[in-house]
Design goal:
The chain has 4 helices and 15 strands. By secondary structure, the chain is of the alpha+beta class.
Length: about 180
Amino acid sequence: MIGVVGPAWRTWRGGVLEPIVRLDRNLHPNLSGGALVNDQGCVLGIATSGLSRYGAVVIPAATVERVSAELEKKGHLGRGFLGLGMAPVRIPSKLRDSLKLTSQTGIVVLSVEPDSPAEKAGLTLGDVLLALDSTPTRDTDDFQTFLTADRIGQAVKASIIRGGTPSEVVITVGERPAAK
């Protein structure tokens, strides 16, 4: 019944499943939420068809335990937050060569929320984010993957390009505000 076991996977709502388990078969109606067990009767996770357009996946037991512990402790799931609106951008080869960059892409800052961690750190429109704590940010998925709940309150070093000049800014990761 298990088709694929892969690395950690980010859902379309920003959650992380570690590792992803994709099932070979779709679930019958009303069977989402059922346990996936191995041949020895051990629960491997919870089967659902609500997280993927391509078929049923399993929320691994490790993810369920992590989320349950955080909900029990805090009452909600924390997400890292910088307060940026961004889009991927290709870095021109001339600039890449002159700055000796290895990545061809970065993330351009399109908006900065007032009173956000990014604004407090001095990020501004047009800055191109290349890395957070030496972890490349080639696209917004890399950025979201970096901003895990355990980074809330931590200072991170952001490598940026501002006006064609490389720079570094220290940003303290905040917690994503609750939706209103």
